[in-house]
Amino acid sequence: MTTPRAIVLLSGGLDSATCLLMAREEGYDVHALSFDYGQRHAVELDAARAIAARYGAREHRVVRLDYPGRGASALTDLDVAVPKDALGREPIPATYVPARNTLFLAHALAWAEVLGAEAIFIGANALDYSGYPDCRPEFLEAFERVANLGTRRGVEGTPFRIHAPLLRASKADIVRRAAALGLDFALTTSCYEPGPKREPCGACDACLLREKGFREAGIPDPGTSVNS
After folding, report:
1. In 3D, which of 160, 42, 61, 148 has the Cα closest to residue 112?
2. Whole-number Cα distances in Å, 142 to 12, 43, 106, 135, 204
3. 5 alpha-carbon distance from chain centroid
4. Could you give the 3-state DSSP secondary structure of residue 60?
5. CA torsion 116→119→120→125, rounded to 10°?
6. DSSP alpha helices (H): ranges in 26-170?
7. 134-139 long-range contacts, Cβ below 8 Å, gap at least 24?
8. Residue 75: left if φ>0, alpha if ψ -120 to 50, beta else—which one?
9. d(C-alpha 137, C-alpha 117), whole Å
10. Are 44 and 68 in contact, with CB atoms under 8 Å apart?
11. Bridge partners, residue 9, by sequence
12. Which residues pair with 36 in a beta bridge?
């Protein structure tokens, strides 16, 4: 019997690492996919490599994407400030990256069709999240429909599934689930603007959500040890 394959979008953060472990637990042969899109927190790519290696990804690809124009996002333009101590203040914060998950999922879909993978896992979260429109259930459901309308596999009756198993989980729930799966939290990184020694800033939305999750889960956060 052939082991089913899955593409896991792996950023190096807590959510995507948890998704990778969940895909493995469900019996998938995991192929990890990360993106270098000029993000100021490129340390996450080192984390993704470490996670993929530690947890037995069959293959790990890092794809380079170029975002057009200045001012697209605080994550890709050093002239745009990363909001600090501002979680929830803006409906869509400056750290939104235009069409990021659309691009990521499209690349994952193409690779999945080549590999014969039936599933794509993404760590999107619509409960404890920062207002990104491409993390909403409606977006993911629509993309799954597009995937099955616009591919040979989908048209011929072997549909793709977009799995977002953390979509409605709180950050505390994610921390607990990751702990149960044996995730080494020190391999993950969340900060949007880490310091010169890759230490988290402690004030960006990602840092605040991570701190909240560990605190509410009652589990200490070891921080990151990747290449530190």
Report:
1. 160
2. 26, 31, 13, 12, 30
3. 18
4. strand
5. 180
6. 43-54, 100-115, 137-149, 152-155
7. 134/99, 134/100, 134/101, 134/102, 135/101, 135/167, 137/164, 137/167, 137/168, 139/101
8. alpha
9. 22
10. no
11. 33
12. 64
Over residues 173-214, the pLDDT tens digits come to 999 999 999 999 999 999 999 998 889 999 999 999 999 999
Closest to 127 measured CA to CA, from 180, 191, 173: 173
Using CA atoms, how far apart are residues 146 and 228, in angstroms rounded to an integer?
Answer: 41
In angstroms, rounded to a whole number, what is the distance separating the alpha carbons of residues 64 and 216? 36
Question: How many Å apart are CA 8 and CA 122, to the nearest integer?
Answer: 6
CA dihedral 21, 228, 202, 183 (to 10 degrees): 20
Order across the sheet with 29-36: list the strands. 59-64, 29-36, 5-9, 119-121, 161-163
Note whether 6 and 31 are within 8 A (CB): yes
> What is the pLDDT at residue 1?
74
Query: How high is the pLDDT of residue 224?
Result: 72
Task: Catalogue all structural domains in the chain, each as residue range(s) with its CATH number.
Answer: 5-217 (3.40.50.620)
Residue in this structure with the two tokens 């124009």, named with its chain if needed = 69
Alpha carbons 177 and 168: distance in angstroms, whole number: 13
Torsion, CA 123, CA 4, CA 140, CA 71, rounded to 10: 50
Of residues 1, 6, 30, 31, the one with CA closest to residue 163: 6
State yes or no: pLDDT of 171 exceeds 50: yes
